[in-house]
Every structure is written in C-alpha cells, then in structure tokens.
Design brief:
The protein is α/β, with parallel strands linked by helices. The protein has 27 helices and 24 strands. The strands form 7 sheets. Strands 1-3-4-5-6 form a 5-stranded mixed beta barrel. Strand 21 (713-714) and strand 22 form a beta hairpin. Helix 10 (320-330) runs antiparallel to helix 12 (369-380). It is extended and about 120 Å long. It starts with 11 loop residues before the first strand and ends in a 7-residue tail after the last helix.
Amino acid sequence: MESKINYFPSEQKLLPMIALRGISAFPETILNFDVERKKSIAALEKAMEEDRSIFLVAQREIETEDPKIDELYEIGSVCNIRQILRIPGGGVRVLVEGVCRARLLELVKNEPFLLCQISVIEEYSNGSSHEVTEALVRQTKNLVLQYVELSPVAGHDILLNISGTSNEGYIADYLAQNLFLEHEDKQRVLEEACVEDRLGVLNEILMREIEILYVEAEIREKTNNRMASGQREQYLREQMRTIQYELSEDESDPLSEMEEYRTKIKECGAPEECKKKFSKELSRLSKQGFSSPDSAVIRTYLDTCLELPWDKRTDDCNDMELTRKVLDAEHYGLEKVKERIVEFVAVKQMSPDSKGDILCLVGPPGTGKTSIGMSMAKALNRKLARVALGGVHDEAEIRGHRKTYVGAMPGRIIAAINQAGTKNPLILLDEIDKLGSDYRGDPSSALLEALDSEQNSNFRDHYVEVPFDLSDVLFVTTANTTETIPRPLLDRMEIIELTSYTDEEKLHIAKEHLFPKQRAKYALKARQIKISDAAFREIIASYTRESGVRTLERNIAKICRKSIVKLLSGEHKSVSVTPANLEEFLGTKKYKKDHSLRENEAGIARGLAWTSVGGEVLDVEVNVMPGTGKLEFTGNLGDVMKESVKTAVSCIRSRAEKLGVDAGFYQTKDIHIHFPEGAVPKDGPSAGITITLAVISALTDRPVRTDIAMTGEITLRGRILPIGGLKEKTMAAYRSGVKTVIIPLDNEPDLADIDSDVRSALEFKPISSIDEVIDFALLPAVTA
C-alpha cells in the first residue's frame, strides 16, 4: 500500500521540482505526462528515492529549455508519484496524483535536478452562504453541459464524474484539469485558493469558451451550406453543358472529349472485350464532374490503354543471310547464339504463325549478353525494349498497380510494349537472376505467365485490367548464373550459354570492335594512334584477368586518353603502342604470365573453381605439424567445402598404409588447410581431389607437379565424381599457363563443348579414383 504524505498550511519544505510545459497539475486529480529533460528525470529519481513527493509547476514559455525562477509560475502543486514507466528514446512516462497547492519560494539547486523551497497554501472559503455556493455549483454544471454539447472533443463523462460530489474546490479543479482550456486559463484557476472565487473564475472562462464555440458552429454551418450550394451549381453547369452540346452551340465544350475517346476506342484495334471495358470506363467518366479526382484517374487510364499498340507490328526480317551478316558485323565468336538466332529466322520463314521460344543468355559479365540481344532486334527488324530487372523486389513492378491507387502505373512488361510502339518487339529482360522478393510479393512468379508461350496470349496487367497478347513478343533474358533463377521460371526458358573468351578471341574483339569504338568516341583518326597485335596480347595477358572484355575495353580507353594528351602537347604527331612502351600508358603489369610456374613444394596443389564471373585457379596449401590431431581449415569456406575437407581426411585415413602414411597421423599430427584470398567466399564439392592430394603431399613430403590443375568431387571410397562449369574452369587453366588438367572420367564427354584453342593448348587427364591422381600428379619425395 502506498502511503500518502500530509502537508500542513504554511509548512515549508525542500522538494525536487519539474517544470511543466503547457500543462498544470491540480490537487486531488490524476495527471499522466511524459518527461524527456535530464533534469526532470533526475528529479523523478530523487523523489522515488525519498517519499515520492515532487513539486510540479508550469513554466511561462513552452520553448524555454532551462527555465529560471522568474520564468516559472509562482503557484504549483505538490504531487505524489504513482507510477513511472521507461519509454523508448530515453524518456519516462509518469503518473502523479495531486496533493495540495504550494507556492514556489526559492530555487535552492539547479544541478543535477531542480530542488526548490515551497510553502503549502491552505484552501479556504470567503464565508458565502450555502445557497450562494450551491448556485455557483449549479451554474458551473450548466455551463459545462453547454460546453460539452458544442465542443466536438469533450465527452459527457466529465459531467458524470462530478455529479456525485459536493466538494466545490474539487469540482473546479477537476473541470479545469480535464476540459480543453488554454494553459493560461488553467493556471488562473490553480492560483485561486478561495473556493468560491475559483468557481467564479472557472465560470467566467467557460462562458467565454461557449461564445467561441457558438461562433465556430455558425462558421461550420455556413461552410456546409456553401459546399451544398457549390454542388448544386456544379450540377446545373453539367446540365447546361449537355444542353449546349445538343444544340451544338459550344464546339470546345468538354463533352466533345467524350466523342474523341469514343473514336479512339473504335479505332484502337483492341479485342471487343477490351473495347467494352474502355466504353464502360468512358461512361463513368461522362458522369463525373470535370474537376472530380476520379475523372483524372479514368482519363489517365484511358490514355494509357488507348496508346498501347493493339494491332501495330513491324515486319520480321526472314532473310537468314542478312541476319547472319548483321550478327557477324557486330559480334565476334558466339557461334551457338548466332546459330540459334538463324534457326529462329528459318522457322519464321517456314511457319510465320509459330510462337517464339524464350531465350536465356547465361554467361559471365562482359561476354556480350546484353549487346547480342540488341543485335538480335536489329537483325530481326524488331523494335527493342530493355527492362532492367536487377534489384526488383515488388511484384507490382512486373504486373502493375491497381489503377485506384495514387500514382498507379502499368507494370514493366506493358510499359516496354508501349515504349516499343509495336505488339511484336524484342523485350530484353536484363539480369533476370538478380530478381528479389519480399513482403510486397515475388516478381519472378509474376513473370511465369509472361514467359510462357502457351499462356501469354492473355497476359493481364493489374493496371490495364484487360488481356494483352504477348505471343508475338520475342523475350530474351540475360543472367550470370542459373543458380538463383527459380526452377519454374528456368523451365520456361531455353538456356544458351556464353562461355569465357579465349585470348585469341579477345584479340579479335579488341582489334575489330573495341579499339574502333574507343577511337570514334575520342575523335581519334586511324593515323593518329596505332596499337600492335603484340601490344593487344600483352594487355590481355598482363593487365586483365577476366572472362569478358570490359576491363580490356577500359584499358584501351585509357590508352586513347593518354594518347590524346601526348598529341595535344605536341610531343608526337602520332602514337604507336607496342609491348615496349605499354607501361607508359597502363603502368606496371598487374598479372604475371608464368603465374603457375614455381618450385616443387610439398603440401601445395592447384585446383580449379567456378564463379559467377567465370573460372578461377584455386591453390590449396596444407601444413602438417606435430600436435594432438587438430584439423583446421581457413579461407572463408562454405559448409559444403568444409565437408569436402573432412571427407578428404577420412579417405586418406582409410588408405594410410597404402600411401605409406603413419596410421595414427590423425592423432599425432595437426593439419592446417588454407585457401588463399581469404576475403573471397568459397564453397562447393569440386575441390575434393585438390584437397586430398595436397594433404597426401604434405604427409608424404611428395611435391605435386606445378604444371597440373585439377577438379573433381571425392567420396569416402576415393571415387571421383563429375562436376559442373568445366568450360570456365579449363579457360582459367588456359589463362594461367597450366599444361595439364585432371578431370573426372564422367566429364570426358563435356570436352566436346570446350573451345578448340583451349583443347589444343591443354592436355586432359580423365580419372575415376584418387589412386590414379596420386600416381599421375605426385613427384617422388624430396630428399634432404
């Protein structure tokens, strides 16, 4: 049970104090407020440590942050703290009960909280008769009733709470606390110690408030009448417009807009179902006021729908030879892609009504996926519309928003059709593997209908609300990997892989496409700058390490810029770039050609990895040290690769005697396996044989051949399982100078898909067990 502190008239006391902003506390009433100032919170904490008594007084100006004594009212209330609650942001919510009035005499302390000297004020009566006091109470209640009837925010429960009491002082304090009065008016009531005078002050305030409320009610009534009059006037004006239209007296009348829409609907070429929908919306528009918000929504909807190319199309180019010439002129290599496009043209020539497949170009960055899509549109004589899907998380981005929403618009598919201006464009859906999903929906699911040639003849956008035929659209998508594309969506597309370029292909691309493009960009003539083939080869080998050609193009652009500086400074009349002076333009070499050649060393093996940007060479380093059998692996490994490490060690333990390894090595030796470039995440099972061979090499002190790289998953029994990404991995081996690549026997048929230059430069060793790898790749033990 809380104890309530009693104060005696004229008693002086030291109490913690809070300066209130815009509110006042009254005796015998409950007040709930938030405290944020540090001094006020400290005052609350001090009061809670003692007897929960605190002095609350209002400050004169709400904006004052740290009020002095002359910036505070003289009269406040001593209150008892009932409850304290911490709120987010560091503030406190406090519930207090007023005890008595008090006068602020002195601010004793200002830090860390306000401590004040107060004098308790005694409530008294001026000696009026009972009849006078009763009359004041009745008048007060009548005024409150009028106030409640007029005020839109005051409730009748205020009257109920005072109906059962005859305490005149409490009635005045309760009403002043709970009615919506000005802060200064509440303070006037608080400062009145005489009960009868306090009721008189409250009555005076209530009468003034009631007069103001009457004025507000009159203003509100006039406003409503004016609005009703405006609606009547609008109705009459609409009648007048109709009459004028019938009499043809006003050719520029907005009703002529209806006829214009009717003509557009009739001539738009849309199916009858769509025309009925548009006519229904037009009928709604004709019933709306000209300035109505709904009319603007309907106009925008009709304008958008009627602008769509319902029956507009371009004639496809069905000349296979011309198509091939256009593709060859703009892209070097990419034979499989070009072959598939020629097949598409051939099928269209043979069967014009056949539905097109959805093509998905998959390959590392910079291999020409987006540009080949643009060339396809040019070769097929179709309009191109590119839709960037990277980072799209909202399903409405694909299907559009309902037109009732503010700022609604069609989805990206319909917007691309509108942009192209024909119903049979080539829509390039770029970076389809970068689609996301969140609480707003899954955009990849919204694409399922659009990318299904059996269903997309009735594609419904949420904004357009009527079916649009997408069967004549040629969809081409691009992606760096198929791993992140949902299976149902992937099943609807024909995958065409674009592999990494060989150095020879990069040389041709640089000479025939990239260099002329940069020369034209910087307005350089052919006689002003020349780059030799040897210089191109040096750039490819020593300044780039990529699957595509973007870095190569940036280096060529850098050479062009530095050449312009030399030409404009008068140093040279023309610039010739050769391997001898290449460092003047590009700086020191970033990559060494003989990266793979090093001294024979036990415990190091070279693997091959696949990434979304192409293949990479991956070294595995192993140290074996005396210890207690700890197995450590570092290099930012994923769960699958960690399992491959454990599998490799178990495989070695099972054949320790055959390998000449101490059978108890796993108890007496600590093995540390490290994959360099620790900041790069690594995962997957294809490094299994590399890890196994590196550990065997470290345990037996037999070096691994430095001209060998390998890839393959290992089992506990030592079998080698097939892997994916062989094209990219062998390309990485080719770039790094490796001579021989060990691959799983089951991957031997995949060698047919590898570039001919890579096949001729590398020797491939298909194997089926770890024993074959050991016999082929390990050198004799190093002797001291």
